[in-house]
Amino acid sequence: MKIAIIKYNAGNIQSVLYALERIGEKALVTDDPNQIRQADKVIFPGVGEAGTAMKYLSERGLDQVIKSLSQPVLGICLGLQLMCRYSEENNTSCLGIFDEEVKKFPVQSNGARGHSFKIPQIGWNNIYDLQSDLFHQIEGGSYCYFVHGYYASTGVHTIAKTDYIIPYSSALRKDNFFGVQFHPEKSAAVGENIIRNFISIH
Amino acid sequence: MLTKRIIPCLDIKDGRTVKGTNFINLRDAGDPVELGALYAAQGADELVFLDITATVEKRKTLSDLVNRISHHINVPFTVGGGISSVQDVSQLLQNGADKISVNTAAFKDPDLIRSLAGEFGSQCVVLAIDTRQEDDGEWYVYLNGGRTKTEVKCEQWAEKAVALGAGEILLTSMNHDGTKKGFALEITKKLAGNLPVPVIASGGGGTMEHFVHVFEEGLADAALAASIFHFKEIAIPDLKKYLTSKGVNVRK
User: Fold this and answer.
1) Active site residue A84
2) Minimal CA–CA distance to A122: which of A166, A181, A54?
3) Which CATH number fits domain B5-245: 3.30.2130.30, 3.20.20.10, 3.20.20.70, 3.30.2270.10?
4) For a designed S-S bond to B248, which of A31, B1, B78, B243 qualifies (C-beta 3.0 to 4.6 A apart)?
């Protein structure tokens, strides 16, 4: 099994490598198009800002490489957002693999007893309406770890939802492309099982 | 629904946990990695590793430890203690830390917060504030692990730091720390209710009821404690069951 993790100017890439090592998988962190194309599985992670990340990917032709992949690809967090059509974050045209748009969470006034929704969302939240093999044996309502200020709307490619201010897509899928808004590499046993499920997808 | 977080804190010196613990089932209770993994398995939502090493080898020891932690622990963790430069942070993040916390260095050079947020994103910049309520009723910022008083008020510093890019506030009340008489509800509520970023309350947690209070009345987004977990006065699974029974939303 050859797993490639796409290397670019976003944070948190090492964490994905370490998470794979924890479950006994080796991976190559690379920005070499050939290495990425030849991998059995490709992971597109990242924490950061959409505009800068897209610019970096386009300058190196990695945007075209990612779109042309035919093996299973998993975008994580910013990775998922960049796989969408468009992001409100710095008005960025993204890869357009998923038709969904990425928007900023709306600011809410204080709720009951002064509890307010903070932006970004940081912490553990439920994933529900789970579809696809990515969530094989994962119970609806399981908790995953999220850190994000922008969200992908729900649509035809939604395979998991989460509620924060509004319901949004916590996972998307189109053909061989998967994206998760949460961090499976930081989501305890649930996250490890989701990573294992991804690795088992053919 | 986003849950309230329970965060055990481990004090580290020369790569080892400082305070004793009575986890007899651990092979090596002084190993931060083993203790952290145990807490993660018990349901800790995050971990904080606070390094108090003062030697020149500090950086290398700490980044080696962080690397080992990230190979063994499957929940997010924050590393703090004497961090004062973009290079320090870069090295810790490269080794797998999810967030770093800054305290004295950020107060002395607030631009450090802006640089860190710009370079790595606000989501990984936690501002730790040690604060004490003085006789005038005001909460003042203390530096150097609580040894140096400043004339700056806690709320002012927190607001400024958030404007500069701090993504979370770790608020420790020196009046409450170590007392086990409950968290500082009033100042926690002031910050958590007004700031647009999450506030982690620290200092004073002694009973499970104290955690209910800090979440419900203090509006804290997360609560941090050390010795009550290390000495098994409160077990994390019991705490989470109790919080759930009291209507506090936590990860099960």
Assistant:
1) no
2) A181
3) 3.20.20.70
4) B243
